[in-house]
Amino acid sequence: MVCPCQKGRSLILPMTRYKILVEYEGTPFVGWQFQTNGISVQGVLEEAILNFSQERVRVEGAGRTDAGVHAHGQVAHFDLLKAFTSHKVQEALNFYLRLHPVVVLACEIVEDCFHARFSAIRRSYRYIILNRQSPPALVKNRVWWIPKPLNLGAMEHAAQYFVGQHDFTTFRATGCQASSPVKTLDRFDVQRYEDQIWFDVEARSFLHHQVRNMVGSLKWVGEGKWQSETIVQALEQKSRIAGGPTAPPEGLYFLKVIY
Amino acid sequence: MVCPCQKGRSLILPMTRYKILVEYEGTPFVGWQFQTNGISVQGVLEEAILNFSQERVRVEGAGRTDAGVHAHGQVAHFDLLKAFTSHKVQEALNFYLRLHPVVVLACEIVEDCFHARFSAIRRSYRYIILNRQSPPALVKNRVWWIPKPLNLGAMEHAAQYFVGQHDFTTFRATGCQASSPVKTLDRFDVQRYEDQIWFDVEARSFLHHQVRNMVGSLKWVGEGKWQSETIVQALEQKSRIAGGPTAPPEGLYFLKVIY
Question: Which Gene Ontology biological process is one annotated for this entry (chains A, B) (predicted)?
């Protein structure tokens, strides 16, 4: 589809760009991104596309997720020389993906200037803690299990210190490649659902490990190891060692991308 | 604990009876009940009890679940000659169960006349259909996937014909051992939660495959293959061949037992 902004690649080659909405269980993967040391979500998607279209393409995702991190609504795009209906692409991908815990929930043909990563204006993640004495059976590998009761009110209060524009150096992975540590958080809700605590966070974009590092510190607040206000001091320190632990990947879900 | 009704076994042997609340993922099991052809939930529980107490006991469950059926709140009991605190029993069981998707959510010492199966006055089950075009990734093996849209209103209406006292011959497994096919359903709610449909059903007790057979017929109603009223005729026929298909086990959850 030729884009109205005239920046599209279709001016050079007659390609069709497909946008897909993807759900996956992160447990068996080395992460979203292709790596040589194991299977990746990107890799199995590219393999499935090759199998049905005979075209070897690069699939671009809205966000890279780490090994073990899940997605309810990752978004990705890719280009094909042959033109298929979006329905056909979705059906064929799900057929070739059937041995992996990855499914395409929706597919549409988009303008050539659409980019899963660069066109995104908002991303949301959910982190789930299972807060009960007994370990998980039905949600194994899908939550962070914390047996001791956490103080929900304190965590909810503390989470609000993250909202707004801040230098998140304390809460980014030391190897994070982003050019600036300044990000703007639009929302950080903490709610209990039965024996789970859900941390819902929204921003235009996030630093590497930012959600997991924020949740790790909030867990310290919930345990009483930190006061809610310690978050403010930790942000001010601008140093990863001033932050709490990195929450494990299995509790994290990439929920939604808005364009 | 000696029971006030004086029917307890402790009059003969000084045993302690433990009641446990159990969560499990049914996928890897041949079912609740011990069988020689694979591992059972009952079997791994008995093994865990043997490992920590050195006593070989029989664990009695409130209800037998088939292979692949899950539980949020199965209840069981067993007797030990040695006396442990309930907390110790729960901790030790969860330690020895750690390689299986089975956990003890609660444990208490009960009177000797308590029986997980015979003392139960109400049981509840949930059946989950994933009703969306794409197969499940995050809830694989935990739902029945139906890609075509089902008519929720028609299923909800039809489900009410099951409520009350009926002869459920049409909806019991042909090999069902129960002495009478007459059961009383207290509740049958059908609700949509995003892309899932939850069937919540409550009764004192159920026949073998009763929930799965009722849900299989409701699916036919949802597809328009049956009218809601066809349920009434099917009940009247009192023959399994007058009923719809048996819904697969992976969508079924044993939720709760009331004593």
Answer: tRNA pseudouridine synthesis
